[in-house]
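Let us practice reading a record.
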Amino acid sequence: MSIALVFVGMFVGAISGFFGVGGGTILVPALLYLGFDIKSAIGISVVQMVFSSLFGSFLNYRKGSLKVSSTIFFGIGGFLGGLASGYIVHHFSSRTLTFIFLGVILYAIYRFFHAPAQSDKPKIENRALFLAIGVLIGIFATSIGIGGALLLTPVMVGFLHYHVKEAVSAALFFVVFSSIAGLVSLSSYGYVDYKHGLLVGLSSLAGVWIGIHFAHKTDAKRHKKMILVLNFIILALILNKIFRG
């Protein structure tokens, strides 16, 4: 099991770095297939997201794709919303959480499919709006074991007219805040498996570096198409899990 988790961690880290997601969108389904239940998978996923988002955001900042000054308000909102995740996980059934996860994937695919990789409209810069968006995404995303980037990226590209590269970097930065809040909240309810979480989290760091390296060498349109492919793969995994019970 430990060896499998190391390889899963490295793979999830690469996905996290390349697509600007916390990694939970891949890690939760992978852990389900390895025999973990949904709530344990969510707890492990949150630990991994802390590692991958911190390291990935540091690398993106050094490469100049992360603008902290305004996007930090997404993060503050995500932290506040993420604090409610433990309550939601504690009071919702595993089946309900699985269907919420499915709904998130379907929305992300729909919204992102219709958004251009690089909008010709001016970006919307409203810190109060960023804070509100962050709170809502933090509440729902962290509760299902993802950092929120899966939702924030299509919102930034589709509604706020951000370039896909900026959105991907900002979304991973958002995960820093939402995952730390989720870790605090889930820990208070006893849902965090630190042993397996640390193993996956540390293993993911090498993958994050590789993923970000290739992300900055990929053009925007191709990057967007690959993000859509990732979402369809996740959707297929979740549907297969639901129908197989």
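A brief commentary: The two ends are 22 Å apart (CA to CA).
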